[in-house]
Write a structure and sequence with these properties.
The chain has about 400 residues and is of the alpha+beta class. The chain has 16 helices and 17 strands. The strands form five sheets. Strands 3-2-1-6-7-15 form a six-stranded mixed β-sheet, with helices on both faces. Strands 8, 9, 10, 11 and 14 form a five-stranded mixed β-sheet that branches. Strand 12 and strand 13 form a beta hairpin. The longest helix has 19 residues.
């Protein structure tokens, strides 16, 4: 009997887990502790030779071609296997555009001939890595920050929050700060040359400066930057090499202040801490304390040094403001430490789901797709029904959405 079980495990094909992000894609096998590869979501166009981002498409046909080339690279270059008759787990955001969802399924079923697809919501599967079913999941990626509370295994969609406060906003602030800094130099000719050089830096260089040379400062110093001043003592400058033989100096205030875009209040009084408190405030009274004590941070932008400490300080400061003081009776916030890096925790949750029986019970098979010619979606009334309690039950997901 043990020999038979071992043989079955050897012959059974592992499911593949795909987390397609705006900037980076995580790809690997179910049941493993980390993805086999984390690559940029871009592909080289065979006609023009230009590198294009997968999510920067013009129409459905253009997206189809980009996905075919990109997934072909993932399957045959990075994991070196044929996807035919394989099961696939797709980790997706609850706000993923329908055109991306449908086109991805069409590519996988018709072009690569996978046998089944399982779509899992990223904010929900993140909690599987922590063995909890209640949490306030904040995903700070490249394009936007998306906050979805999950209570007893149910994503509460009526109080989700989203703001364009993520990696792209940090990189734009970093570039603008460099140009402004060099424009204010004493020597006119030198300032013009350096400001033009800073404005012409590629996106990859700006991203590398953000990752390697910037950090989130303390709350006291951040407030000074909000007033247009520079705190003391100053932060030392960073010499960054460009093209091997040239260097550019990254001023200390620029390194320290570029992440302030995440915490500054705009005209609508919105920031990352405001998103968290507003979601807690809009939730039911008995949900508030469990959510505040189970905050899960996801995404590459939360890995910057000092982020968690600054976010906690801003939350405690906002609790004393008139906007929340009389409405929220909460004095404790707790953050979970995930079992891996925050940039691939959603993928890891999908890998856990792909290693269970859920992948056989809840997957969309190729036969069902050929009959329906569409992917069931929770936001479509065609694929939802009301039960006797008034809850909307989505036929393609593992849980009920309130």
């Amino acid at each position: 009997m043990p020999m038979y079980d071992g043989y079955s495990l050897l012959t059974e094909k592992q499911a593949i887990v795909l987390d397609l992000g705006t900037k980076y894609t995580k790809f690997g096998f179910a049941g493993e502790a980390s993805p086999r590869c984390i690559v940029r979501s871009e592909v080289k166009c065979p006609k023009t030779g230009q590198v294009r981002e997968v999510m920067n498409y013009t129409d459905k046909d253009d997206l189809y071609g980009l996905l075919v080339d990109f997934l072909h690279m993932l399957f045959f270059k990075h994991v070196q296997l044929s996807p035919k008759e394989r099961r696939l787990v797709v980790v997706e955001s609850l706000l993923c555009p329908t055109i991306v969802r449908d086109t991805l399924a069409k590519v996988l079923f018709q072009h690569f001939e996978v046998c089944s697809l399982l779509y899992v919501p990223s904010h929900l599967v993140c909690l599987a890595t922590l063995a909890v079913d209640t949490g306030l999941v904040l995903d700070v990626g490249h394009q936007e920050a998306l906050l979805v509370p999950v209570y007893e295994g149910v994503p509460v969609l009526r109080i989700w929050q989203a703001q364009p406060l993520a990696g792209a906003a940090i990189e734009q602030r970093l570039r603008n700060s460099l140009v402004e800094w060099y424009s204010n130099q004493d020597s006119l000719g030198d300032s013009i040359r350096k400001s033009q050089e800073a404005s012409n830096l590629s996106e990859s260089i700006i991203e590398d400066i953000k990752v390697r040379g910037s950090f989130v400062t303390k709350q006291e110093r951040g407030i000074v930057y909000w007033d247009g001043k520079e705190p003391s003592p100053p932060i030392p400058d960073l010499t960054y090499p460009i093209d091997g033989d040239r260097t550019i100096s990254i001023p200390g205030p620029v390194r320290e202040a570029c992440h302030e875009v995440l915490f500054e209040r705009d005209n609508d009084q919105m920031s990352l801490p405001n998103m968290i408190l507003d979601a807690i405030l809009k939730s039911a009274v008995d949900m508030r304390r469990p959510l505040a004590e189970n905050i899960v941070l996801v995404g590459g932008s939360v890995m910057v040094p000092g982020f968690k400490a600054r976010l906690l300080a801003e939350l405690q400061l906002l609790l004393e403001s008139p906007q929340y003081k009389d409405q929220l009776n909460i004095n404790t916030f707790k953050f979970h430490n995930p079992p891996g890096k925050e940039n691939y925790i959603a993928w890891l949750g999908g890998a856990l789901y792909g290693a269970t029986d859920i992948i056989t019970m809840k997957s969309l098979t190729r036969e069902s797709y050929s009959t329906l010619n569409s992917v069931p979606d929770w936001c479509s009334l065609l694929h939802n029904r009301l039960d006797h309690s008034g809850l909307i039950i989505c036929v393609d997901t593992i849980h009920v959405y309130l």
